[in-house]
Amino acid sequence: MKNSLLLHTAVPSLLAAMDALTLEPDFQIFFKKAAAAVRTLLGADGTALILLDEETQTFEYKLFEGEQQHLLNAFKGFRFSSTTGISGRVLTSKTSIFTRNYPNAPDAMEQLVDAGLQSNLVIPLISSDKVLGVLASSWFAHTESVADISPQLLTLAERIASQIAVACHREKLEVQLRSLAVIDPLTKLLNRRGVLNCVDDSLEKLHRYNRPFALFFIDVDGLKSANDHWGHETGDILLRDVAQRLSDVVRKGDQIGRLGGDEFLIIAECDESHIDTLAKRFLQALRVPYGKGRKRGRLSGSIGVVLAPQDGVDEINLLRKADAAMYIAKSQGGDRFQRASVKAEEPQNRLISVVDVEGALERNELQLWYQPICQLQDLSVVGFEALLRWCKPDGEVISAGPLIQAFESGRGDLEFRLGNWVLREAARQMRLWNKNSLTPDIHINISPRHFLHPSFLVELQILCEQQQGFGESLIIEITETAMLEDLERAKRIMLRCRDLGARMAVDDFGTGYASLTYIKRLPLDIIKIDRSFVADLPGNRVDWDITKGIVSIAHALGLAVVAEGAEEFEQIGSLRELGCDQVQGYFIHRPMPFNDANDWLQHKPLRIPTRGMLTHTATKNSSAEKIKAAANDELAQQCAKPNLATALYLQQEFNDPRFSITPRGKSRSA
């Protein structure tokens, strides 16, 4: 070959291929450019990309570029063994092979001979010393008209092939990364994101082509028991088995994915007449026996079914109805399916579903609200309890109770993700307080499952390392249930929390089953008396005696006592008399958003009415009546926080400076 040919034809072809690799993100467009460069360089009729499937050890025709596309387009998707043909020899030798007379070659493939292939050049696509496939250039003219390929041209063609190999490797990695984003690593099914994308696709087909479909919302019965008795490794094996069984019975074209935990979703194009048949097929697949002897058990499934468009035409509404129907099936004993439209969509105590909470979290509609906690001695603010709220776009605010009930009844990982979100959000808002030189304590409730889960300590340690002082301001509230579920493990976690600076509080004390032995053994700092013991003070003698006993025991163990649910001043007086250390309740303030809590903390109402203003309507019968009258006084009502007027009254009535309203951590100058 002459140098001028290399300069004017070969080298520009190589540079075009390399530019295409650098500048073109779309692999198919890049291949067209690179293949065209090779075809121009060699004078071939076409160039094909043939990739190796390592799992099946077969070659597959992927792409073809050239003038004879009508001849080889039919071969797209054609597979053949990696040990046959000239491509098989190239794979073994890792060297290029030019076959001038292809029909007479001993390993010629009959299909290609019939297509008219006369000559071909097969170049290995090698990346990181690994053959990914071959690049096959083809000639369909008579063999006499095809000249031998010079070493210079072959070298340049191989250089372009090496660029194609790099692009193939990059494309393969990108495909793997894309699959990781939508594939559940445990079951190899679609993950939550992947299967919900399929729901969106099905809704699009419904709108465009009027193709109805059903959602089968599946919860595996008995898996939690298997995890508890035989460990999560056994549970993972069972989950993989369930996933495989369901995959075996879904129809071609149906989509199946794992939403999380032991929840699955199947999307099936069908109408009402097919639902019973499909649901029974899925139930049969879910009846999984496992173990032997005393360790023998059996799984089953609860399925909620919705049909689009009859039951809705948007993702959130369909999933919510399917989840509610599944809950009905489970409440009836499981191993059955329930149509969403057959019975009431949701029982009254299931108005908020796990799907609602999941959506609120994804749309950033959840907030932390804060309720003050004060020292009983002087009503100075020592901290806040962070409480979860769902603030809907329409202005409705959902309190923590229904949200907790929803995610605790869920079977996925929402409880852990939401708990970690609460920790991160509290740390973020604590940082804002610290900038203003305010250091209130923050009480955070941690659910039993989350407290015992490995993600809790991991998340807490990261936050404490990232934000200095967060651990020292944090008070972790757990229930007696979390302590009793696994006492030794709970103790180890508590000690680790203390190592990070956090303090431990037992919430709703007196409503569970924790004995004094447990309280003594565990590294606790605070006991929070349940509001049910405070509500009837001071009139209920039984509650009085129980509260007095709890306070005495707590103080004997060196624990502080916080009383919850104080709404009346009479309760404040009783709790002070009983020796409680701190108080929380509507008497101090209702829960409020962070900005309001911040303003309240920095700008407390300091207008103090005169003694005459506060007492002129009071009778002389009792201090309680005097206080009630003061709270109703017109001037007292003008205070931004009327319930604090009673404290101001005490400050003047008894000349007691301890009743000044000063938040802890707030500078005097502020």
From TrEMBL:
<dbReference type="InterPro" id="IPR029016">
    <property type="entry name" value="GAF-like_dom_sf"/>
</dbReference>
<protein>
    <submittedName>
        <fullName>Diguanylate cyclase (GGDEF)-like protein</fullName>
    </submittedName>
</protein>
<dbReference type="InterPro" id="IPR000160">
    <property type="entry name" value="GGDEF_dom"/>
</dbReference>
<dbReference type="InterPro" id="IPR029787">
    <property type="entry name" value="Nucleotide_cyclase"/>
</dbReference>
<dbReference type="Pfam" id="PF00563">
    <property type="entry name" value="EAL"/>
</dbReference>
<feature type="domain" description="EAL">
    <location>
        <begin position="350"/>
        <end position="605"/>
    </location>
</feature>
<dbReference type="Pfam" id="PF13185">
    <property type="entry name" value="GAF_2"/>
</dbReference>
<feature type="domain" description="GGDEF">
    <location>
        <begin position="211"/>
        <end position="342"/>
    </location>
</feature>
<dbReference type="Pfam" id="PF00990">
    <property type="entry name" value="GGDEF"/>
</dbReference>
<dbReference type="InterPro" id="IPR043128">
    <property type="entry name" value="Rev_trsase/Diguanyl_cyclase"/>
</dbReference>
<dbReference type="InterPro" id="IPR001633">
    <property type="entry name" value="EAL_dom"/>
</dbReference>
<dbReference type="InterPro" id="IPR035919">
    <property type="entry name" value="EAL_sf"/>
</dbReference>
<dbReference type="InterPro" id="IPR050706">
    <property type="entry name" value="Cyclic-di-GMP_PDE-like"/>
</dbReference>
<dbReference type="InterPro" id="IPR003018">
    <property type="entry name" value="GAF"/>
</dbReference>
